[in-house]
Fold these 4 entries.
Entry 1:
Amino acid sequence: MNWHFALLLVPVVAWSQTPPAAPAPYVDAHVHPLAGSLQEPSAVMQQAGIRAMVLMPPPQVSGMRRVSDYESFVSAAREQPGRFAFLGGGGSLNPMIHDVAADGVDAALRERFAARARKILADGGAGFGEMSPHHLAARPGHPYESAPADHPLFLLLADIAAEHGAVIDLHFDLVAKEATLPAVFSTALNPSVLRPNLEGFERLLAHNRGARIIWAHAGADPLGHWTPQISRDLLSRHPNLHMSIRMGGGQSRMQNLMLSRDGSLEPAWRAVLEEFAERFVLGGDQFFVAGLPGTGPGIEFSRFAPIQRRQQAIFLSLLAPEVARKIGHENALRLYKLKH
Ligand SMILES: [Zn+2]
């Protein structure tokens, strides 16, 4: 057993003792079917009362061991349009952005990038994901990614999203002020000092108000800068900003959790969720890997999925019914154009 698994076991045991609640069928709007097949996600949906999932490839960069983009699951997803929506670009658009400096984008690259983005939408994608201007490596084999959020290709993507009523699902590890890397994230890939990145993110949000940006992993951020208060400030300033909520999922390194250890809802988060109930969806970051050979971060992350689902059910049961309805499914049906 390596130290990663040692870290995982304690919280897994604690949450597995909590009896599963039974929420109204909900949507999980951030799911990674790494194995391509949708058999395992379908079976899980049945058991867990999940009415639909939004599928997407993880945000990838050149030089890492790549998984694919949306092509691996698109035909299976299209067979069940009410149960699956999908986003693309994590395995194609995201590496294109990270491969070029902000001042190195020429007309030919813009053209190639836009053509790929339009192809994803033409194939039935509800938007682009998982994209990432800043992504900490959580494990060996997991990438560190850093590009300005207002990189010209992110701005171009916002324009294309706005033009088509599509969304951008954005993994963005917020650095509100310069910080040293927490020791638990010291892999070879992460820098030891993290530079502030909020201003570029706000410029991306302001660039085209027609682009709906869904900031992924509210309630489980690695650096602790994504607080309920900063969420309120940004949601107030940026009407096109949405957030998808990831429960802690038993990952003890995550901060700003919505469910406290005793299973209650953090009051500061509850206030933001109630004030901006139209702007949140659930996004469990569930990885499905059945049949995938070998090892890798995705296979390790897939172990969190059952805990994530249990916590999603508990979370929904703690919200006022009208807030649970919006966050649980209504917002997601609207944002990802899922059939009712
Ligand atoms: Zn992510």
Entry 2:
Amino acid sequence: MYRWHHGMGVLSFVFLLMHPVLLTGYYLPLGADIAEEYLSPLNPQSTNILGWLALVIFTLGMFTTFCLNFSYGFWRRSHILLILAIALGFGHIWAVSGFSISLAVALLPAVVPVGWRLLHADRSGDTLPYEVSAVNHPTEHITEVNLRPLAKPISIAPSQFVRAAFFKGSHFQGCGDFHPYTVSHITKDGGLTLSIKALGDCTWNIQSIEPGVAVRLQGPYGNFLLSRPIAPEIWIAAGIGLTPFLALLRSQPVTQHTDMIYIHREGERVPYEEELQMFATSQSLLRIHSLPMTNDLTPLFIQLDSIDNLNKKEVYLCGPPPFMAKVTQWLRKHDMHRQQIHFEQFDFR
Ligand SMILES: Cc1cc2nc3c(=O)[nH]c(=O)nc-3n(C[C@H](O)[C@H](O)[C@H](O)COP(=O)(O)OP(=O)(O)OC[C@H]3O[C@@H](n4cnc5c(N)ncnc54)[C@H](O)[C@@H]3O)c2cc1C
């Protein structure tokens, strides 16, 4: 859905840019005066001003999307600019051709989802209350947060994720924005566990979270490991990208021959390694390959090369985007079809 949204945004931007280009091609042959009257941003007619403002704001919104250096919070707020650009664009059409039924029909699919998002979703309208019931630290930089539902629990399956906002505790500072986390364990009474790696402001702060902190959850989202073709599988988990696989292993034994490659930093105490080895010992279909690695992916590629009939298997990947891009590229070069490669990307941009 996210990539679809991204693609549609870019496509609509390209279409929008074609509009002034085509108009220039139409008016310029009629004379410079006429072209200036209809196209110049300096011409104080409402049609021109609205059209140009929409284009400039749309361009700024797209710029912040592709400029990855901005912080996530700034990027997200600047993305809201695009709503203003679309409103001005409709104003421009209204000023050019007056109000019409077709304009009203075109407005509906823009207004309804944006209205729902701003008035309902962003105001916590679809969230459920939870409370932190316990906190563990499997390693120095990972915090396992157990959550207890205070009302109806979210109906969620292993490998899906929630968006969580943590509120202030007696010592804990809170983490107001909603952040996505894959659940790493689901209990029968509706309790959930999130395994959170310290990465930036919010996740570092979460390292000091305490039982009793109020949490609101949105979800469930994602379908990473939900319906899988019946075939031998290779799971590749990089670092905290382990969580969807961990949730699945904690819920049921594997049903296909599964080679799991767990990549972690060299020298660190390896989170969850003992638990994974326990699963491998008790399940004959599961093999765990624990791979200490730096940024050089050669050991992973050697490991993958050693797997028999690699291109007859389904591959499931989870980790940071640059890692996934390199591994996908390698798999494609080794005769794997796009449809055999499934992934969950721990990044929304
Ligand atoms: C589908 C999905 C599942 C994830 N599951 C886990 C998990 O199980 N365990 C885990 O430790 N991490 C998980 N993450 C990553 C986690 O969401 C980010 O590490 C966290 O949001 C970083 O926030 P920060 O303020 O600490 O860091 P920042 O330094 O502010 O951000 C680091 C990166 O995280 C992303 N990010 C920041 N804030 C948000 C936000 N509010 N919403 C979405 N993305 C944001 C941005 O891409 C940013 O570049 C998951 C991410 C996604 C998209």
Entry 3:
Amino acid sequence: MSIAIVYGSSGGNTEGVAKLIQKKLGVEADLIDIGKADAGKINSYDKLILGTSTWYEGELQDDWAEFNKDALELEGKTVALFGLGDQEGYGGEFCNGVGTLYELSLKKGAKIVGDKNSTEGYSFEESKAVVDGKFVGLIIDEDNQSDLTSSRVEQWVKSIKSAF
Ligand SMILES: Cc1cc2nc3c(=O)[nH]c(=O)nc-3n(C[C@H](O)[C@H](O)[C@H](O)COP(=O)(O)O)c2cc1C
């Protein structure tokens, strides 16, 4: 089974969390910057952890936005999602990018795991990353709650480990 952690990161925060996930996962997983990869490369993996930050009031990070998502093949693949945002600065569209990746993964027939995370401890008005009252992936806020990042990553990785 080949595993990749695929991230889009403009300032390095999402990249940092991707590295943390890689470290805590405890199995071999390649780190891929979506800005430097094509769909063929990503399609060659069996299992994927996809991450994005949110920009421009609710949009996917630039490299994800420009990436040819139509060519992504996710049918039957195990997929987990994570994302970064700023709940104080952008509380009306907090981590919407993760919601966009969730919709994309669902549409493409992925088997999504790690998608029922509590919103407790966060403070925001609205987020596309919330479905049925739960975050559909790991949600990290380096701008306001960086002290919680390590424990949030650890807890989430524990919850998806058996699927990877
Ligand atoms: C211009 C700008 C727009 C942003 N828009 C959003 C947003 O709509 N929603 C959100 O949750 N965070 C938003 N953020 C916060 C970033 O997602 C956050 O700082 C993140 O950690 C950046 O990660 P990166 O360095 O991996 O790109 C925005 C930040 C900036 C500077």
Entry 4:
Amino acid sequence: MERTYGVVLVGCGHIGQSHIEEIYFRDGIRIVAVVDFNPNTAQLFARKYGAAEYNTDYHPYLDRNDVDIFIAATYANSHLQILRDCIQAGKHLLCEKPMTEANEADAEEFYRLAKAAKSKVLIAHILRHNSTYQRVREMIREGAIGDVRLIRMIQNHHIMNPARYGRLMEDCPPFVDCGVHYIDVARWFTGMKVVSVGGIGSRVGNLVPQGHFDHGILNMKLENGASVIYEAGWAESIAAQNLKEFIGDKGRIRIVLQADRNEDREEGALIAWYSSDTGEYHTINSPSIYKNMWQQLLCLIDMIEGKSEGSPTLDDAYRAFRIALLGWHACEQNNVLPVPEEFA
Ligand SMILES: NC(=O)c1ccc[n+]([C@@H]2O[C@H](COP(=O)([O-])OP(=O)(O)OC[C@H]3O[C@@H](n4cnc5c(N)ncnc54)[C@H](O)[C@@H]3O)[C@@H](O)[C@H]2O)c1
């Protein structure tokens, strides 16, 4: 890192906490301010993480010379305005996914503005910075499972905090909000395009109005004919479930998180690899940080210092979002939609 960076965190909720608790004590980082609509939350964060100031509005920090980076950990429907403001003020932005609320016009504007800007913009696809995911990608690219034929990913949440999840679902259904991570994983791990997406949506709980979805299953085809299934739902009656499995013609790999294991939890995440060539099962200990917020911020700093084009690139994040939005429409139509080449 070439110098000290002044940071403003906007949004002191669930993911805002994950961001700040991993960065506030680092050399080269100065937390200038924490911002939240709720002044009590912002004040608490300022005390806890040593921010010089707190506020309910981020605008006063846009023209401050001691601020370099904004972190937008706010609702998706505020991301586009924060981006516009940051670009106009010449500030860099680490923006939580999804880029915007579920709306093609906003997504397109976000992408176009960010692409043309002098400011650096990184979309927070945190799995890109998780060393277990990085290692599994390498294994798949090196042929550990042969030709990828099937990817099965489930991420269901049993809701304990209806207000939070209800608010998130005003902007995006769960399979769009979380789906952007896993559509990106499928493209990133395989290097392949997603050529079509189908979907089936459900309303399991009562947090979303009639006609909206709190659960969905997307089924995608990769360019080699492989299938990708992604399921996500948030409801009081859904059981939490997490499956990440990658199957090829020569074996399969499962990522088993620390929290999902009964034994050997202290070892961290597991990579469970079965090779059908040898008939052997391998268990690889992977002591990674699930949400490595520090590596993610360093990725943006590398972009600012001209050392990286970011991970994911804006193009990869945009494509994942557009495919997720197509998946949402596929759910609405109970149909399979082709993915246009520009988003594949
Ligand atoms: N990368 C991940 O793993 C991950 C996980 C959870 C959420 N997220 C994303 O992070 C974003 C926030 O989700 P969350 O779960 O932290 O929500 P949350 O409800 O826990 O927190 C959001 C906070 O932001 C504040 N806020 C919202 N808009 C604001 C604005 N314009 N100005 C000031 N304060 C504002 C709210 O008051 C709230 O305290 C969403 O886009 C969500 O998809 C990402």
